[in-house]
Design goal:
Blueprint: H1 16-46, H2 50-55, H3 67-70, H4 78-96, H5 100-121, H6 132-149, H7 152-165, H8 181-197, H9 220-225, H10 241-249
Helix pairs in contact: 1-4, 4-6, 5-6, 5-8, 6-7, 6-8
Length: 253
Amino acid sequence: MGGADRGRTGAGPVGPEEMIAEARKAFFVMFGFLAVVWLAQLANFADHYALSREYGVVSGDLGTLPGILTAPFLHWSWAHIESNSGPLFVFGFLAAYRGVVRFLGLSLLVAVTSGLAVWFLERGGAETVGASGLIFGYFGYVVVRGLFDRHLIDTLIGVVMAASFAYLLTVAVPGTPGVSWLAHLGGLVGGLAGAWLFRDRRPRGRPARRPDGAPGVPDAPARAELPARAELPARADHPRADLHKELGDLGLL
């Protein structure tokens, strides 16, 4: 979770170096995730999609409950996996670049909410598989994360993603034939809930720490070396304090 990987639950990266490091990890995590999904598709295709039938989710069938965790890795056809791969990588990367550990928790939450929506509410006994529930979860998370974390950059990303991909919501409502809209809706709900549950809980304007990690005020020589503009930091209650912090993290202040 960026900075949270060092022990703070829900805390994101606190500087551009950490953000770049987490973005690099996010890229390789999503590359590996897609590689696993495509390898599963190769095995599934070779076995005439027996894996989808065996490890999918069927509403009301207790024996398929474990499929909640396996169904996102499986698909019914090459067209199915091809249509999911691009959005999965893009939204997954955007969801993960603030912290890979937090992203893994989000993925588990979304898989569960998407799978349970199908298990409880789907009709007809159809076997449901596919990564689209995760896609909708990551989409919902990316759109609102910046609001909960009070991160300017993430808020702007959310606005752009919402404006560019709002059409996705049309397959999260009833009426699209051959599509499990319940899986989409359940994933979307999980992503929105995840944005709240995994929000950045770092206190704003916390006191500086000494190099040894102990709380306190920097010693006199360290204060003397600070640039003049650092002597008048924006107050935590200043209406633009969060904006100043974001621009400072990016080295623009």
